[in-house]
């Protein structure tokens, strides 16, 4: 029997989001229905609402979530009803070229539910990142459910489902930050702060936080930054060089997604250092750099999608570290809100007032 629950819909380009009744089918083969307990508000949800990702309105928003598996379809063996899970948007297929080469974090055939959730009039919904978790319940592919220790608070656990995992992974997976490294992070929102926490976890000797907003820099210190630079007041490239003996940082993580901050990252790294782009640019942005500088500075320039994470490997490990008091995931939750508050949360995000607003159900 399909069920009717409440969910947050983006009805059309730029229109305010609203709470609607949605119809969630029973799970088919390989699918699961999850009762959502918490779902963070991510920048990408706002991009969907604004039509920046695709035109497949109406969207069922929300994708940074944790909850309890309610029911599973035929053939599902990895999760069972009652399991506490974080939802992921990288349910690796096991069969694509990336998976077969042993690099499942690059999987390009990730699974989503086959059946559609709908409005009560039958209109099909497009779930954000194949999840759609600003809802009391959602339908996903079973592989999108990653079981973790159930003693963690759902509003904290859900954050690993997107932005916080992207940031931590940018540092520990893509950037491969190691003991004694110097690290600079440009842009200290949820993603940048998570990169700071990840660099701290990996044993970085110096972590330099760069932002335009002093409130963000104060928070970055709480996350593990050892130095802060307000790039409205000084040249961040000079400041990072000064703080690293004139060399630049071993790993520079760009967590804004703009050409000017990417250039700062490029010039603020040590000659053999690594630049990681985790901020997401828009289609019209262009980067211009002297090719000789690209050649003349060795090292590597990398991008990081979802922190190059492997949910089955990274989610349970990071939750365990959090429960041991070694990863302050709880500090990312600025406020908990209701389903009906998502539109307001977008405004607060736009004004830079929050790291994360999290809907609790
Ligand atoms: N790669 C991925 O898989 C992935 C996943 C989630 C989010 N993201 C992207 O990461 C980026 C950051 O996301 P977020 O949730 O932290 O956003 P956010 O808006 O919370 O944070 C952005 C931060 O950058 C700062 N900033 C803006 N312009 C700056 C500049 N010129 N110099 C220095 N700092 C500047 C802002 O003050 C803010 O603190 C976004 O582009 C988002 O789309 C990427
Ligand atoms: Zn694959
Ligand atoms: Zn997201």
UniProtKB/TrEMBL annotation:
Recorded GO CC terms: cytosol
Documented EC number(s): 1.1.1.306
InterPro entries documented for this protein: ADH-like_C, ADH-like_N, ADH_Zn_CS, ER, GroES-like_sf, MycoS_dep_FDH, NAD(P)-bd_dom_sf
CDD domains referenced in this protein's UniProt entry, alphabetically: Zn_ADH_class_III
GO molecular function: mycothiol-dependent formaldehyde dehydrogenase activity; S-(hydroxymethyl)glutathione dehydrogenase [NAD(P)+] activity; zinc ion binding
Enoyl reductase (ER) domain: residues covered: 14-361
Gene Ontology biological process: formaldehyde catabolic process
Pfam families named among the record's database cross-references: ADH_N, ADH_zinc_N
The name this protein goes by in its record: S-(Hydroxymethyl)mycothiol dehydrogenase
Organism of origin: Streptomyces guryensis
